[in-house]
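ARCHIVE CARD
CATEGORY: sequence design from structure
SOURCE FIELD: tokenized fold
FIELD CONTENT:
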């Protein structure tokens, strides 16, 4: 009997409450699976995994492949890629999706190499075509074109997908799934790479993709000090802070805060845009914001034209005025 096709989603559960890309991919996989009559599966590797296994089932996975051992406690791209490739060689998924997180970007090419298959990186769309192939849509030529890529022969068809593109399915406590465990195939005690210490980066915006309010700043904010004031405004409005590329290059913001083609795609209910010109590489990632308030000295800036409310003013001054007013109201 021909085995049912499987769509696998790699379970990236680090920073779980901020990083929802695995759940978003499971949600999309459920949609794709209907078209090719496939089973949606998650792959979970690590230590003490019950919580994540339960979450993935509750969000749509019908089968979960698990490799669990204390030596797998720390995320390690090489080891996780080796184990995922092992699982794939045995169970032969048709499709394997990975979140384009910093880890996913390091991990997925290693898995593809081991499985001798292709990989489309940083996809912004996925669909099934008339031949039941996965159409992987990814920006190319510096973001000026979107390319539809298929993998006609090699399996699995592999793609990394940016966080924030697809929507997760709401948690269903009644959902049931099958758990398949694989024992560690080799002794990993002599691994070449060991994590000695890890530290959280200060000011790192972890949940831009999921934030209901985002305050995004561009070069027009004027100085690092004024940019840092935005964090105070963010604290008062329960917002997350994002930045354009020049600010990341200047070292005012971490790469995790970059909004745009080379960074994160956001879809907040409210986007405050301070001193942002609106280059295509940036606006492509904010198109889905429901309501945009832009502040810019130049009324003709693209961002001002996109905005629902466009304020022609100095970005730093508007930020300070908002902080003052909000503090008065909170008191
Ligand atoms: C391959 C590639 C990938 C890229 N990826 C990204 C990406 O992911 N994200 C990204 O952001 N960019 C990206 N870029 C860069 C992008 O093209 C733009 O250069 C960048 O977005 C511009 O940032 P900005 O709006 O902060 O600066 P600018 O374009 O310099 O705009 C500054 C704005 O501030 C306004 N301003 C000036 N003074 C004030 C003031 N006092 N008060 C209010 N407003 C003021 C100006 O009128 C202007 O509109 C990419 C470029 C390339 C080639």
């Amino acid at each position: 009997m021909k085995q049912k096709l499987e769509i696998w989603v790699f379970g990236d559960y680090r920073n779980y409450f901020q990083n929802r890309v695995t759940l978003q991919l499971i949600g999309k996989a459920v949609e794709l699976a209907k078209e090719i009559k496939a089973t949606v599966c998650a792959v979970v590797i690590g230590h003490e995994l019950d919580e994540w296994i339960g979450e993935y089932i509750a969000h749509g996975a019908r089968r979960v492949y698990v490799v669990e051992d204390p030596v797998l406690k720390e995320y390690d791209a090489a080891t996780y890629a080796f184990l995922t490739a092992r699982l794939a060689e045995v169970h032969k998924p048709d499709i394997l999706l990975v979140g384009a997180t910093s880890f996913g970007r390091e991990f997925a090419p290693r898995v593809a190499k081991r499985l001798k298959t292709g990989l489309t990186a940083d996809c912004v769309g996925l669909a099934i075509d008339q031949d039941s192939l996965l159409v992987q849509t990814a920006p190319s030529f510096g973001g000026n074109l979107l390319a539809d890529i298929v993998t006609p022969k090699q399996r699995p068809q592999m793609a990394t997908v940016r966080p924030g593109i697809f929507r997760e399915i709401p948690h269903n406590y009644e959902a049931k799934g099958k758990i398949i465990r694989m024992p560690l195939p080799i002794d990993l005690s002599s691994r070449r790479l060991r994590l000695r210490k890890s530290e959280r980066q200060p000011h790192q915006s972890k949940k831009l993709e999921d934030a209901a309010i985002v305050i995004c700043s561009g070069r027009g904010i004027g100085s690092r000090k004024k940019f840092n004031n935005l964090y105070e405004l963010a604290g008062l409005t329960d917002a997350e802070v994002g930045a354009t590329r020049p600010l990341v290059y200047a070292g005012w913001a971490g790469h995790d805060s970059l909004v745009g083609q080379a960074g994160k795609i956001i879809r907040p209910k409210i986007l405050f845009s301070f001193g942002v010109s609106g280059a295509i590489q940036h606006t492509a990632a904010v198109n889905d914001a429901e309501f945009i308030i832009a502040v810019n000295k130049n009324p003709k800036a693209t961002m001002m034209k996109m905005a629902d409310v466009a304020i022609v003013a100095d970005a730093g001054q508007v930020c300070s005025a908002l902080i003052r007013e909000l503090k008065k109201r909170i008191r």
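CARD ANNOTATION: The pocket of flavin-adenine dinucleotide is lined by residues 142-143, 218-220, 222, 244-246, 258-263, 275-277, 279, 281-282, 295-298, 301, 314-315 (CB under 6 Å). The two ends are 70 Å apart (CA to CA).
SHELF: design records, drawer C
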